[in-house]
Design a protein that fits this description.
Blueprint (H helix, E strand, L loop, with lengths): L1 E4 L7 E7 L4 E9 L5 E2 L2 E4 L4 H21 L5 E8 L2 H4 L2 H12 L5 E2 L8 H7 L20 H20 L8 E5 L3 H12 L3 E5 L3 H11 L2 E2 L12 E4 L18 E2 L10 H9 L3 E2 L2 H4 L2 H10 L5 H26 L3 H17 L1
Parallel strand pairs: 4-6, 4-7, 5-6, 8-9, 8-11, 9-10, 11-12, 12-13
Antiparallel strand pairs: 1-2, 2-3, 3-6
The protein binds nicotinamide-adenine-dinucleotide.
The site of nicotinamide-adenine-dinucleotide has 24 residues, from helix 5 and helix 6.
Length: about 350
Amino acid sequence: MKITAVPSDSHEEIYRVSDADTGLLGFIALHSTQLGPAAGGLRMRLYANEDAALTDVKRLSKGMTYKNAAADLPLGGGKAVIVGDPAKDKTPALLRAFGRAIENLEGRYYTAEDMGMSPADMATLAEETSYVAGLADGAFASGDPSPITARGIFNAIRVTCRHRFGGDDLNGRHVAIQGLGNVGWNLALLLKDAGADLTVTDVDQDRINRAVTEIGATPVALDEIYAVKADVFAPCAIGGILNADTIPALRVSIVAGGANNQLATPEDGAALNDRGILYAPDFVANGGGIINVATEILKIADRPAYVAQKLSALEATMDTILTKAHKNNVSPDAVAVATVAQKMDRAAA
Ligand code: NAD
């Protein structure tokens, strides 16, 4: 296995990891360890080329710095990617080689599950490194973070409703959900319980069918989700979906969901604001998952109490961000980014 440092002006450390025996090619990026060891998941995807993988790991690790800081976790931002098709190229030997690369960083980076990875894969990595979280078994194992991620988004929707409608009762509110995977489905259940009406879409017809039959959701075609007339649009699938094409089509008062990197560009945050649409910054709204993972990294004995306290603090942070954004008539995203910068400046002082 070969580990080569990749020079960077924007990140503390980046490594290219390759292994001829197993066909492994991947990157580990530590954006910042200012607040603690860098933490963020491992993603496996069939990237178009090596540059695309490097760009993704840099962007995602920076996002983790923001997310961890917003959640007031003593963790920095990091991420790892492996180039390949998880269905075809993922082998235990390849994962173990990557585990050795993570171990080589001696705890400056902790990994966890992300796209293309499963709890079983985390267990394979754990054969070679102790710097892995999201395990199903073990003393501090935190398991699947998605239900906690969904709880955090649910809280964010309530906060945005308070700001926009003067109350956070979701009974009768209409929410359009894009993506019914781990996060979207858990969110749909919470919203249904609270009495909300749901319109949903997904690329997977089985997931739509389940939402229709089990919770009475209304299905729409993939592209129609942007123009659904509703109170809230909750993106819970892919990034970059708030852009120059989709923002003019939106017919909602609020955008609050779990997908990472929802805004295609920072200017799209301003565009939402100009249209009078209240946006819950994604890296604040979806921080529940890393809060759950953090209990494993930090070896927290009372996980439910820690998660409850951190989720409540995250809700207060969202509230403060929206209040400031309203007062200064700027986008909540800009305020959230500035809030994180302030937290990091305070830590550095
Ligand atoms: P997932 O893979 O379980 O679910 C994603 C769902 O979106 C799938 O059902 C998929 O079929 C659907 N989908 C894909 N492309 C779509 C499209 N164009 N339109 C509609 N649906 C589409 O993933 P997840 O764990 O639910 O994560 C969803 C999002 O939330 C991702 O952006 C992820 O990075 C982010 N996120 C997840 C967590 C977590 O705890 N799982 C935490 C923070 C952020």
